[in-house]
Amino acid sequence: MSSSEPEKKARKLDGAVAQLILSAVCIVLGALLLFVPQVQKTTLSIAFCIAVLVAGVVLITAYFAAKGYERPKDYRFAAGIAMLVIGIVGFIRLDALSERIVFVIGAVTLVLAMIMLQSVVQMLSLKSVLWIPELVFTVLAVAAAVLILADVRALLDKVADFPYWVLVCAGALSLISMLLVRIGLKQAAKPKPEPLPEPANDPSFPQE
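^ that's the sequence the OP posted. Answer follows.
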């Protein structure tokens, strides 16, 4: 096994863990906002800042644990610092963040949609039919994110708690997307049956 293979596996694992955590956080926070009246937008803003800070710490820790400084294209340290800055600024401007939390939900949904779009490309490259449901998930997530970010009041005012439902659904679709990717990768890893030899080239086949 070459030295680059463990590195690639580690990066894939980091990405999968990050997507899993983000998806789970979206589902939990969205469900709390929908079904627990005591939860306010400020609570969601605080949870968002904490999640960003934790993600930053994880990225920085992973960078040093995997000796990322020995590789020229490992940007986990820079990404981790950026996450810490965003989280700290979020806490400083918590009131402003709470007022714009709906747009944060739209941005997070768009991030999940882009992750699912990569899964579409991955499944297409592997020639797996699973790219079709992946594409459906991506289109739904992008459409919902655009509606939120564009502040389409005609819809947002008619559908109660629309952004919160989007947050839950986007997290759930992302988890299903991860499952489909694993299924697609397992199918691609299966050895393909060798084609049967042509009768003319088969020495065991009786020749006329």
